[in-house]
Specification:
Blueprint: H1 2-7, H2 10-22, E1 27-28, H3 29-36, H4 40-52, E2 56-61, E3 64-69, H5 71-91, H6 100-108
Helix pairs in contact: 2-4
Amino acid sequence: MAALAALAQETRLAIYRLLVEAGPTGLAVGEIGASVKAAPATLSFHLKELVNAGLLSSRQDGRYIFYSANYPHMNALIAFLTDQLLRARRRLPSVRRAPLRRSLQRSKS
């Protein structure tokens, strides 16, 4: 899956997190670069990879380019990962397993 490969790189993950938190309006390229401290050429490369993976979309407003998270694609990715984890869990040997919710609560403490 291209989205997971794109997010496996530290700078791209930081960019994606920033844009998810920024909301649907997104951020201008300059704001993204300042936040992740990336050189313009490097930033351009990473943004292109995230757009190609379907994780970001871009729009031009005057002389500025804004990038924003593609929330429907993000939700589809989360659904895919959840489905895969649940399938894998069902394939585990039938050793006594705590319910998933209880397991997650213990790992947070």
